[in-house]
Amino acid sequence: MNRRPIFLISVLCFGFAFFYIPILSMIVYSFNGSKLVTIWGGFSTKWYVSLFHNQQIVKAAVLSLKIALLSATLATILGTMAGIALARFRVFRGRMLFSGLVTAPLVMPEVITGISSLIFFILLADWVGWPSVRGFTTVTLAHITFSMVFVSTVVQSRMIEADRAIEEAAMDLGSRPWEVMRDITLPVISPAILSGWLLAFTISLDDVVITSFTTGPGNTTLPLLIWSKVKLGVTPDINALATLTVVIVGVGVALAGWLMNRAEARRQKDARLAYQNNA
Amino acid sequence: MTAPAQKRGLAHWFHRRGWSDVMIATPYVWLLVFFLAPFLIVLAMSFATRTPTAPPFSFGGEHPLLNLTGYARLFHDTLYIRAFVTSLLNAGLATILCLLLGYPMALALIRVSAGWRNVLLMLVILPFWTSFLLRVYAWMGLMGSNSWFNKLLTGAYNAVVPTDWALRAIPMMHSNFAVVLVTVYTYLPFMILPLYANLERLDLTLDEAAMDLGSRPLRVFWDVTLPQSIPGIIAGALLVFIPAAGELVIPSLVGDAARPMIGRVISDEFSAARDWPMASSIAVALLVLMVFPMMAYSHYQAKAQHDPTAKGTS
Lengths: 279, 314
Fold this sequence. Notes:
The structure holds 2 protein chains of 2 kinds. Chain A is mainly α.
């Protein structure tokens, strides 16, 4: 073709090396037998063993998963409602403010969201006596608030792309708006709802800043525990933990991609068959 | 009214407009309570006075709600000005580097075959799904003065420079260089993905037409591709710049503690100094600085959402 692809391909290779060399280095050093994190002391899996025996890490991981499951589910419900509302109800009172509220948390620096949530919870406890302790509930509430807007963005853009002809056909055939929503719109946007949930789940599981402000004593999530350990420097068991995360996420993403491709292929095949049968 | 009639009335209300009201009101009220209210509290707090009480503030003095001490300190105390400048410079530099690396990567991604493209896109997104904290941590391992990476770079550096400039190790950790490097590393997918989405929609026949008419590849890029991809550049740049300027985790782990970025200053004022009004004033000032890029971003988002088929600058 021309000379450009050679340049582009080399930048691409450099980019991927840049992405993956730090991760690969971390994986290799997680099998390091030496306690010194920078010197190779032979192959060993002892950091993985010590990881599973570390009650603190296991406890923090369980807490993180609980918060992520609960907050992602509630954020998905609220975010889907907001996405549908913004995409379908073009005119309602306060729409401007609502669409602003749905975009603002996306671009708000996390420190500010964290501090304002903390001040809010402290003052609320002062005024109405709730929440008396900060921990699971306050972290979950904060996570719902800031991950629901990601869900709503995903759902809203899927709604705008979606073909409205089927909805209109159902409406013409006498379905009520709510039934159209339940039987047609929701199934059509279900892949977007699923990816919204996954996004909310990973955001919650990954969050450091907002969690560190809204949590209380004794409620340390996994990112907070890693954060406090990493502040003191590089440790081999964190390498092992990081490797496990990368492997789980890698397998998960690959599996999800494969399943989605298969579902899409099947859907297209069904649609083709349907057209052929009708023709 | 009898019970069935009431039930029917409720069903009637629900089907007529109730369901859409519930659909709008639930997330609306949630965001009003848990997002807008806390934000308004911070805004009010920025005009309060610090007191040694719990909670540590009061609205008093001659002009309650018009106490500008916090904002005045922003301009008098060089710590704050320096922190703002450091943040904007680090974020700006990281954005430019992300663009310089991300643009050719996005361009390359639309040129590879479809099979490869899916795999490579997955590889761009994959680090994004792994923990942000662990990606920062991965670089802490590489940048330390005893790491293989630092030794490699030091060896290369020592081979090039005269012997009296030779170093035992390159001091990479705890510097603005480290902050920019790690910011580029963690935010690069945010640059590549919108650029890719934008470039993918471009009309490649224009490129070919220009090429057929005898333009050189670089000329075609400059005159045809680049102008069409400006919305993608803006979206990517803002997605990197806005969070990078307020970043707290990266500067805390790899940054220079003597030259903190603004996120760190806000957090320290709040937690260590327990000066809520000052922390709030800085937070509001940061938002005012960011409001233009934020509005630009939502403007472009709204435009892209209303017109998903929009191409380039047309």
